[in-house]
Recover the amino acids of this structure.
């Protein structure tokens, strides 16, 4: 059986990777699908192509994981991939309430089944939006995201990281 792991992945986090790693052990093949919405254009930190590149790099070590993108309803994408289920990661009860509604709708309008995988407790507080905010101030997100995401965030906020490192060097020199 195959699975589709949809999301915006702006960027992919260690929590996403945890869910993906476990899904890859359960299913024959997992397609990580970047769902893009034209109405949300410009609201992502990374372009669709950048997110796809980050995902390809972050998932390159998997033998049974592919990367794709799709715009529109997830059930339409699922209709193109018969025999697949939707995989969704859950961090907290609040995620479950939202995801349960979406799962019921996907089953109702597209006969698509959803499998939930709980993210490890270690990643229950990590979200892409929090990672983006921390990185925008030059904070260290290397434990919260795969190397591909960390590098992309650093490049995106290069000026902030450079300024923060300069300030740290000055403070270090002054303390000697």
């Amino acid at each position: 059986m195959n699975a589709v792991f949809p999301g915006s992945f702006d960027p992919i986090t260690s929590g996403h990777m945890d869910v993906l790693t476990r899904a890859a052990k359960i299913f024959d093949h997992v397609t990580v699908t970047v769902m893009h919405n034209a109405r949300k254009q410009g609201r992502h930190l990374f372009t669709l192509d950048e997110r796809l590149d980050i995902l390809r790099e972050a998932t390159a070590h998997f033998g049974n994981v592919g990367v794709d993108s799709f715009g529109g309803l997830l059930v339409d994408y699922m209709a193109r991939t018969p025999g697949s289920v939707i995989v969704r990661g859950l961090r907290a009860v609040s995620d479950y309430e939202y995801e349960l509604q979406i799962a019921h709708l996907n089953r109702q309008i597209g006969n698509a089944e959803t499998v939930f995988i709980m993210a490890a407790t270690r990643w229950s507080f990590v979200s892409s939006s929090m990672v983006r905010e921390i990185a925008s101030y030059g904070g260290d997100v290397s434990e919260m995201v795969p190397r591909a995401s960390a590098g992309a965030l650093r490049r995106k906020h290069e000026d902030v990281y450079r300024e923060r490192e300069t300030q740290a060097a000055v403070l270090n020199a002054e303390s000697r």
